[in-house]
Amino acid sequence: MTSTPHRVLVVGTGSIARRHLENVRALQPSVPLAVASAVDGRRVPSEMRRLADSAFESWDAALRWAPTVAIVANPAPFHLETAELLADHRVHLLVEKPFSTSSAGVEELILKCRNRALVLLVGYCLRFSRSLQALREVVASGEIGRPHGLRVEVGQFLPEWRPGTDYRRGVTARRALGGGALFELSHELDAALWVLGPAEVAGATLDRVGALDIDAEDSADVILRFENGAIGTVHMDLLQQPSCRAYKVWGDAGATTWDGITGEVRLYSVHRGAWETTMTADPVGNSLLIRELSHLFACIDGCAQPEVTGEDGLAVVRLIEAVRASTNGLLADEVTAGAPRASEIGHG
């Protein structure tokens, strides 16, 4: 199919929204591009205004601009209401991860998009890593036999995430805005399901074990029981120095590993009795977001089907809800976070 003209609206004023603006501009330089703060009256930062053709500080103005595509990149507690409003105006959607902080109403949004023939893509961009795709293909091919287990670890020191900013003021530090290790690092939960299939939560712990000045968990450990019989452990933290992202899947005929920092994939065969490197370089970075955007436009143009569906995003939200339920939603020294103010909706 031939491509159709796009009018792209980015919703949000935080770091990921700015990254999406930069990437849309780089990928499709001539496409009409706008940014909306998602809060009536809140100013869009000047550096984001320079990246866009238009900047809006009210929903009425943004919708009068008549976007055909929107990237929802405000804080996660507001993803659903933002996406619903845009879907009502027949706008195709890329919703940043996590899809929502609650499963309530998500199925209705998925159905609305399906009934209106709207693309709905959830922003778990790790699925666009060619090296992680290679690990998944090894598992699916049967090269390691019947899978027995999965171990996932990801950690990065939060003050180093966004240089030049105060981490304490960011979304990741604030539970009321969808922060904490569980939501912010939920890429790993989606990847675990993508590699080994449906799973349920068999156990979990959430805690603040470091000295970060945040009101959400800085560490999360989740035990998963997969439908295929395998057991998985997923560790996520905001503390590690240096950063770590490592996966291992093993079965009755071998094992495979992925280093998400370097992009190296390795395979061990019980038959050969040795490890071999099957991919040496495909590091996680901005290229994943570029591939994600290219895929979004291909889906809208009818050339592809979403790699990360609304149902996929909902599955992760439900896992997170199960983790919260298994821990009574509390940390060891929980201080109840206040509800977010309307003035905070535009950040993300």
Description of the molecule:
With 348 residues, the protein is α/β, with parallel strands linked by helices. The protein has 2 domains: 8-125 and 290-309, NAD(P)-binding Rossmann-like Domain (Rossmann fold, 3-Layer(aba) Sandwich); 133-284 and 315-334, 2-Layer Sandwich (Dihydrodipicolinate Reductase, domain 2). 29% of the residues lie in helices and 24% in strands. The chain has an 8-stranded mixed sheet with strand order 8-9-10-7-11-12-13-14. Strand 12 and strand 13 (265-269) form a beta hairpin. Helix 1 (15-27) packs across helix 9 and helix 4 (79-88) packs parallel to helix 5. Mean pLDDT is 92; it is low at 335-348.
Key terms:
348 residues; alpha/beta; Rossmann fold; Dihydrodipicolinate Reductase, domain 2; 2 domains; 6-stranded parallel sheet; 10 helices; 14 strands; 29% helix; 24% strand; disordered C terminus
Summarize the structure.
With 348 residues, the chain is an alpha/beta fold. The protein is 29% helix and 24% strand.
Strand order within the widest sheet? Answer: 8-9-10-7-11-12-13-14
Determine the CATH superfamily of the largest domain.
Dihydrodipicolinate Reductase, domain 2
In terms of per-residue confidence, which ranges show pLDDT below 50 for 5 or more consecutive residues? 335-348
Tally of individual domains: 2
Q: Which strand-content bin applies to the residues?
A: 15-25%
- Secondary-structure element order, as H and E? EHEHEHEHEHEHEHHEEEEEEEHH
Rg result? 20 Å
Shape: globular
CATH topology heading of the largest domain: Dihydrodipicolinate Reductase, domain 2
What about the largest sheet? 8 strands, mixed
By CATH, the architecture of the largest domain is named 2-Layer Sandwich
